[in-house]
Specification:
disordered C terminus; globular; 107 residues; mainly beta; three-stranded antiparallel sheet; 5 strands
Length: 107
Amino acid sequence: SNRRGTIAMARTSEPHSATSQFFINVEDNTFLDAREAQDGWGYAVFGRVTRGMDVVDKIASAKVDKDDIPVKNIVIKSIKITQYKEESTTQADSTSAKSVTQPTTVG
């Protein structure tokens, strides 16, 4: 679900147009979920921010111009992608993994 801190694929108005761009939800946006989306497709969530949401909030609050472009360049110096294992009902070390993105430094 497109909840605060989740990472989803960006796309055009065409449902199957997502490629390499993504966005981080800075608030709950469940209207972007397939079950609530006007186009019936929604935006695919594939990860979540596990640490550093304060950095994401700083980026989101940056001053922008009339075209919604940041007035000052925002440079992300590093991002760490970590594999996390889900808990199973039988063992804490499940074999299933999820990718998550963790912003570490913004300059």
